[in-house]
Structure formats: structure tokens, C-alpha cells
Design brief:
By secondary structure, this protein is α+β, with helices and mostly antiparallel strands. The chain has two helices and seven strands; from the N terminus they run αβββββββα. It has a four-stranded antiparallel sheet with strand order 3-2-5-6, with no helix packed on it. It has a three-stranded mixed sheet with strand order 4-1-7, with no helix packed on it. A hairpin with a 6-residue loop joins strand 5 (73-80) and strand 6.
Amino acid sequence: MLAVLLIPVWATAQNAANSSFQIKGILLDSLTKEGEPYATIKIVKKEAPEHALKMLVTDMKGHFQEKVPGNKGNFIMTISSVGRNSIVKNFSVKSGEKSVDFGTMYITDASNELGQVEIVAHYSLNIFSEIPFYRLSLYIRYLHMFSFGLNTHEISRF
């Protein structure tokens, strides 16, 4: 009797374990052919693009490999990295398919650049302009004394 009760639980657990597939690939810089580290990868169902099924990042060499929940359907993979053009790949997974290999993909630099930047100071950056001359003189003597390694009894020489 106990075996009959456990069969549906076992079947459900097996079905849940089988309801995922694996994605893998390599992301390289298009110019240097070096791996693109820490690029963000987002997997969504094509029918529900606002809900991410899986988020991951590439490793230091640009490799990625991860299980994604779901067993079949149409998906969208978006790869983004700071200062780079995003890569968007549509792909389909058939029932029973366990792995999707994207192979080697190349990411390019974004062509949008910032315009000219002008830096303006609204107050004096000279810290000595606020110090009266006699204090400045003592401060400089103090620094001078320690920069040459003089003892405190030699301060009278200044």
C-alpha cells in the first residue's frame, strides 16, 4: 500500500527534475578574442519577456554554463556588458532536449560616446589661501623639520 502512495510522488519528482535544460557557450571580445568576464546573461520565455527564468554571468574567461527551468518552448537570451552592444538570441527547445550550445559568440564595443566634458571649480582649491602667512610659515617649517629627520631640539635653527 505504501508503494502505491509513493509512486505519484516519485513520478512528480522525476518530472520536475526533467523539466530543465542546460545552456552553455563562450563570449569573446570581437577585437582581442579574449574572454568577456562578468557579462550578464538573462533567459526569458518569448511569451513572457518581463519575467526572467534565469540570470547568470560569464566567468573570467567568458564561459557560461547553467541549467534553466522549463522543458520546451521559445526563449530569448540577452547578453549585456558595460560599454558593449547587447547580444539578443532567440532559440527554441524541443521536448526532451537537454542542452543548448551557443558556441562562441563575439561582443562588440558600443559606439555611443560621451561628448566633451568641462570641469569647473566653484571655490578655491588652494588650501593655503585660507591660512594666514605666519601659520603657513610654521606649518612649512614643521613639515621641513620632519622631512629631513631633524630632532625637536633643532627647531631653533630655523
